[in-house]
TrEMBL record:
Name of the protein described by the UniProt record: Uncharacterized protein
Biased composition (Low complexity): 311-320
Residue ranges of the region described as Disordered: 1-25, 301-320, 356-391, 406-428, 504-527
Compositionally biased region (Acidic residues): 1-16
Domain of life: Eukaryota
UniProt biased composition (Gly residues): 360-369
InterPro entries with a match to the protein in the record: Ankyrin_rpt-contain_sf
Amino acid sequence: MDDEDELDMSLSDQEERDDRGGAGFHALQAQDSDQAVWLAWELGRQLKDVMDLLERKLRTWDDSQGPSDVEPLEPYKKKALLMGRGAEPTRATALHIMVSNYVLDSYDKFPDEIIRPMIRDFLSEYLASWDKTETEEEKKDKRKEEPILKVAIKLRDNDGFVQQIRESCPTEHLAALLADQDGDGQNALHHIFTWPDDKPRSRTEADAKRVLTRAQELVPLATAEMLAAKDKDGNTPIHYAADSRQCLCRGDDYVDLFTKMVEKADTLMKADKAFSNNDESPITYAQRIWRRLLEMRKREKKDRDGIQEAPATTTIITPSAFSTDPKRVALSTDFNPTTWKDPKDSSHWIVKLGRSNTGLEGGGGGGGDRTVDGGTVSSSKSNIKKTLEGRNSRRMSIADGTKEGFLSDLKRMPPPPPVTPMTSQKKQPIDLKGAKNVMVKSTGTGNNAAAGATKKQPGAYLKIQEFLELHYIRNRPDMEARDLIYGKDASAWTMARAAATAPGRARNGGLTEQAQEPRENPNMGRSDLVSVFDKLSKCGVKRILRLQVDDLKPPAHTDAAIELALKGIESLQLPQGRETAIVFSSWRNQAPAEERQKSREPILVENW
């Protein structure tokens, strides 16, 4: 009986094995084979295959989207895209590949309901992978991957992907992406303002507009730590934003954006001194780039113009040159070069510019003019024989008999071009190639049109430079502000030149209007101030070497009030009919004696 039961069980097991080895078993084997082939594909090919399935609506990314009759994507495909890693730094993940091919593979044409859930899941897994990294080797391998926003910012026409990240990414994830640094220590804000290496001086207007658009979108989301972060060279995003090349073709919107960046990061940059590894502040960094651009422009102009040919010169033939000419050897046989003669002697040879058809008359014995190498050489008839027998001067002069002819030649010459006085010349603004201008002319209206046409307003670069100077002067100690504005190695000549040009740079709306003047105390000779000097006077103090009055409460004492307190004047008696108090502008301008009341002897002050 037991043998029969064992036989039945073995037969039933064999039947089950036969069923598994049928059509169902072969289908499972084929599915496993297709999965193995798909998983062996390169990550970019896997992403393209999945995107094709989603575009044709053969699959959905997850169960929460798409029609109910469309099956979701296979779990192994979704997991492979989320966890897969590539070999190249810019194609390290499926998200990197999507960024790189966002426009090339027309991913920007996909509907938002398809692309945004994918980007959201990709970003979550990408940021979670950093938290899972534990060992130093794993962190080193992760650091080789390029940050997502860096890849998106560096590639052109990727504005759509940056917009998708902003709209589909949670706030905390977006902040982490902005702060993510590459191997050079640069975050996303560095990459926005860093000037491309392949464009040393200029770029298209579309590129400049793209940079401004990205900055206006991402800078408001940045924290002070991101704006004050330093790369391997010690430069912050503010350094790169102050670059003179970034300021070209910019308006007040760029200046306002830069101002907000500086004010937000000011607290951290105070503690870190805002200097790069090269001891450059944002001001000195931008000035160095500006000077380099000017030198480059000069070199290009020199190379473009080439070596200029030397101007044409007129050769004056001296009598000593006649000895080398066979035709005139008879004229110079008796020439003695060792002796000199008065240069005013009328017997000297005369050279007149121009051509003459007259030849050498009489074989060299007669007077008149003769042609010498395109010029006309003449001699005085009365002294020609004397000159031929012994000429003892090499210097040329104009003979008295030829002055009229010489002056007539000058009269026939065209008048010289008009020369503009140096005082009326105006320095033109410096224009770099590819830039509209650095100095923008303002337009005038009405009666002030002529005056407005000549008035120039500073461009974005100069406005940023002026803002940084005023910001450092107001918010930094004196010595630190000096180093930030002029550099740590500023010479005395640089400081003197800056002081000399400061009054010329003052204008309405500048420092003169923004500086707050202290309010004066209308009550001249306040009692507490008078009591201090009264106490000193009682102690026998008659002279103060140096006086400095610091008011703890506004408004501050006027100089006139301090002078009255020093002199022991308690009050002023105003004559009848006078409604206002007397204002003292200096020590010499005092009230009349009958209007003063002294209570003690005055105290002399040597220095204020």
